[in-house]
Amino acid sequence: MASKMTASVEIAIPQSAEHIAPSWVQLVLQEDLPGITITEVDVKGSISEGEGFMSDIVAFDAVGTRNGTSQRFSLVAKMTDFKPLSVVWGGQYPESIRDVHIKMEACEVKFYSDVVPELLSVAVPSTERKPTSGNGDGKSLPFIDTSFLPKCYFAATDTSSMLSFRVMENLKTQGFSIKPNIQPLMSRAEMMLAVGALAQLHGLSHRLELLSGKSIPEKYDWIMTMSDTKGPMAEITYLYQTNVKKFAAAFPDQAELVARLEELSPRVIFKEDPRPRLKVLSHTDCWVNNIMIKYAGDAPAEVRLVDWQSLMYNPPTYDLAFLFVFNTGWDVFYNHRDAILAHYHRTLQETLGPGVSSGLRDYTLEELKADFKADCLYGITRRLSYPVSRPTDPNLLKMIQEIKEWGFI
User: Fold this and answer.
1) Strand 152-158, strand 163-169: pairing
2) Which of 97, 108, 112, 320 is the most exposed place for a label (fewest CB within 10 A)?
3) Domains of the chain by range and CATH?
């Protein structure tokens, strides 16, 4: 059954949004906010965005007091009920996909309940990080506190009803939003924020490994692996082949390039990399619908990464290649790539902090750039395996042509 994130108090999962009551919310919040009393809960309703077929995100406000002071919290309940999902698939919910979805939901619950506290426990306070040599433009970048994901107060799965439930801060009420209509991250500043968030995730997971003496797979044997894609591989391959055909129809003068894309197979790209490469805890699904940005006027100021169902243990450039190939335009990919990768590398080193003298500490920027270029093949295959991949986008054509010039297609 369900349990509190800290496992100190067992808390049942509400079976619907209507069951979110003041007494239940008080139990959820009191671990982080001792002495809290919740007197009122106002359920606002669903605010799900993006694909929205796996989870329903319901906003609610909680009002109460703590230490004699009035308190108000804007929260969301992220709920996943696998029973209605068969409707999405026309009553034919493939068992292979269902099994992967169940594992993905369990993965996110365990990430928030088990992994996040450990990552934050080894984080180096920004005041203790040593300054680096700037951002490549002769300007210093401010230290970024570890805030690449939303605050989660409760995460659990009811094994009897197969209902997953998470309670998190409502990022929308804080000014965060996803890009509308699956628009790519068209600015260098937006990409800087996104790669900085990935650098924090990667750096903290590597720091945790070195300080604990255990690898991520040893510590968390439930994280997703490439072999977990074998079940729905037929569906993934079909999407890839369909999108390659759309690409071919949109660019009829690119017969040679299309032939090379047709030779690729997700089965080959998605298999475990046998080479002895440095690996980190990876988001693996860092695309625009999972990137929430807060703006100060027109300038992007903060970022949060959401939807942590697909965690894997991968080379760090897998996340970066997918981010670039799926989420940028040609200008950012071609003209600002080196500066963005340099920012990632600096943030990674800052996040590693003191007491880390091996592994990613010795990973040079030039090695990072070389791995990124090679792993862009993974990024292309991942993008073309998505239902919303935009295979007719001229920016994608330019990126694939550039990657071909690098000798990796």
Assistant:
1) antiparallel
2) 97
3) 91-151+171-225+272-363 (1.10.510.10)
